[in-house]
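Q: Could you write out the predicted structure for this multi-component system? I'm mainly interested in how the pieces pack against one another.
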Amino acid sequence: MENCGIELDIKVPNQTRYLSLIGRIGEDIAKEIDRYSGDRETLAYQINLVLTEAMTNAIKYGNPDNREETVHILINISDNKLFIRIYDYGQGFDINEIPLPDFDALEDRGRGIFLIKTLMDSVEYRKQSDGNILEMIKQLH
Amino acid sequence: MNLMTEIIGENVVIHINEERLDAHNSGDLKLEFQKLFESGSQNLLVDLKDVRFIDSSGLGALVSGFKNATSSHGTLRLASLQPQVKSMFELTRLHRVFEIFQTVTDALGK
């Protein structure tokens, strides 16, 4: 696979049973990217993870009135960059206001956004006319 | 969720026969921990040999079990973590919380 011109536009039912499918797609992408000099297994895990975390958030918080039966995910690889966009229809939130997890507090929740921000080079969450977009970018060296 | 429990000495060993521990099945694991502690089990050992992927929900289920263990004056320990799974514990600093063993046998020997 060349590092340019790859775009996957995916819609899956907004059910957690499809997390593994999306994760596998992420792993396959990592394994096919040309000219990637880093650890491919680690990259595969990381893409699997950020897709899983982002899709889980979209399922849990991004569809308050069950108005959408699908989660919409766009994956694009070009210019040695991986772009992932996930669309949701929830109230939204300010991603910069999400605190770091308290590593000593032993909470059951609150690590998902931290993991996404840690593993991706750029993470933005913004409102659009009809919902929100989580956009994540990773440089592929 | 596909798991198997066996009692070995004073330990209940929970073998998680799933490739992924994520938001789809972590709730089941949380409930399993609750049931075991409520029925009087005290020392749980979670065998993660088959788990090659864990997300924040999976980590959360293990943290929930760990807190249950502490309040029940018991333990919840982990064994046989695959390298990428172990790295998730390190990234979230949870490797400082859990007792983690190379194998189930190692854990039972302690």
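A: Regarding packing and overall arrangement: The beta strands of chain B are 3-8, 11-16, 20-21, 43-47, 53-54, 75-79, 100-101.
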